[in-house]
């Protein structure tokens, strides 16, 4: 993810397998100025028409870092000092109870299988979106938008508070 600012959020997709979801998430990254990463292998080629249609021409406005494996991605993010925040239905902490920081990486697992234990172990935090008992999960793009929105809100509030402290003395 060369060129991404450590002050912004990054959304990372672990081996995405539904091109429409990946395209939608990357479009959101382009529109909101988030960084983006795809951890290979993806279940579709980047030239896939569904991926392109979901991302529309917005894909030209987001730098997508591609990592050949989770270990390559994890080595990069550790060098950068970025926290890895995994969204998972297996987590116990609600995303609304977590304190996000600038530079966080929000990681989304595969739509079909989530994230393996290796990824869970590497995460600095694991968060869930509380659902009704009879429901299993949300669409990954919807989940990404909900959590990224909350993270961006918290980071913006923290920046404003820091600016007021500096200006107010």
UniProtKB/TrEMBL annotation:
Location of this chain's protein in the cell: Cytoplasm
Transmembrane segments: none
Keyword set, alphabetical order: Cytoplasm, Methyltransferase, S-adenosyl-L-methionine, Transferase, tRNA processing
Pfam short name (any one): SpoU_methylase
InterPro entries tied to this protein: Alpha/beta_knot_MTases, SpoU_MeTrfase, TrmL, tRNA_m1G_MTases_N
Keyword Methyltransferase: yes
Cellular component, GO annotation: cytoplasm
GO molecular function, one term: RNA binding
Catalysed reaction, written as an equation: 5-carboxymethylaminomethyluridine(34) in tRNA(Leu) + S-adenosyl-L-methionine = 5-carboxymethylaminomethyl-2'-O-methyluridine(34) in tRNA(Leu) + S-adenosyl-L-homocysteine + H(+); cytidine(34) in tRNA + S-adenosyl-L-methionine = 2'-O-methylcytidine(34) in tRNA + S-adenosyl-L-homocysteine + H(+)
Assembly and interaction partners: Homodimer.
Functional note: Methylates the ribose at the nucleotide 34 wobble position in the two leucyl isoacceptors tRNA(Leu)(CmAA) and tRNA(Leu)(cmnm5UmAA). Catalyzes the methyl transfer from S-adenosyl-L-methionine to the 2'-OH of the wobble nucleotide.
Family in the record: Belongs to the class IV-like SAM-binding methyltransferase superfamily. RNA methyltransferase TrmH family. TrmL subfamily.
Protein name (database record): tRNA (cytidine(34)-2'-O)-methyltransferase
Natural source organism: Methylocella tundrae
